[in-house]
């Protein structure tokens, strides 16, 4: 129940109010959560996330690079796992462990089920980072070197990726 007031004597009550917040229009690739707060030494969970990928743009192959500041965040590679979109995928998937090079984690994978790949909204991968910074705002960015392919091998265009941030507090 929502109460609205436009002066002290007039209160209106709305019992059914429906609205949608869609800050990221798809198809898009994003970091989830967009923002989180942590302290030095914390382990945080981060997801690489598909947003509103339509069936006619289903992804059968991808390459994505995620950049993090290694002086402030550390990859915890043993906690990397496939996200819900891949775990629930009924077809064939191949998602080898990511590779790490300096401040970049590279993720490659393929998915196919009778000529259809991954589509919809949900996590592709889940990974964990250890906070090494004392305080400040740290960016987790999706790199410019990213490729998405459909079943014919054609490149699929996505909106600009949406990065995430970690606010480290004392």
What is the string of helix and strand elements? Answer: EEEEEEEEHEEEEEEE
Count of helices? Answer: 1
**CA-atom Rg in angstroms:** 19 Å
The counted number of beta strands is 15
Let me know the largest β-sheet. 8 strands, mixed
Low-confidence residue ranges: none
Distance between the termini: 37 Å
**Helix content range of the residues, please?**
under 10%
Question: What is the mean pLDDT?
Answer: 88
- Give the percentage of residues in beta strands: over 45%
Shape: flat
Q: What structural class do you assign from the helix and strand content? A: mainly beta
Can you give a write-up of this model?
- This protein has 170 residues and is an all-beta fold.
- It contains 1 helix and 15 strands; from the N terminus they run ββββββββαβββββββ.
- It has one helix at 84-87, and strands at residues 2-7, 10-14, 28-32, 35-38, 43-53, 61-67, 73-75, 81-82, 92-94, 99-101, 104-112, 120-131, 136-142, 147-149, 164-168.
- Strands 4, 6, 9, 10, 11, 13, 14 and 15 form an 8-stranded mixed β-sheet that branches. Strands 3, 5, 7, 8 and 12 form a 5-stranded antiparallel β-sheet that branches. Strands 1-2 form a two-stranded antiparallel ribbon.
Furnish the topology, listing elements before pairings.
Layout lengths: L1 E6 L2 E5 L13 E5 L2 E4 L4 E11 L7 E7 L5 E3 L5 E2 L1 H4 L4 E3 L4 E3 L2 E9 L7 E12 L4 E7 L4 E3 L14 E5 L2
Parallel strand pairs: 4-15
Antiparallel strand pairs: 1-2, 3-5, 5-12, 6-11, 6-13, 6-14, 7-12, 8-12, 9-11, 10-11, 13-15
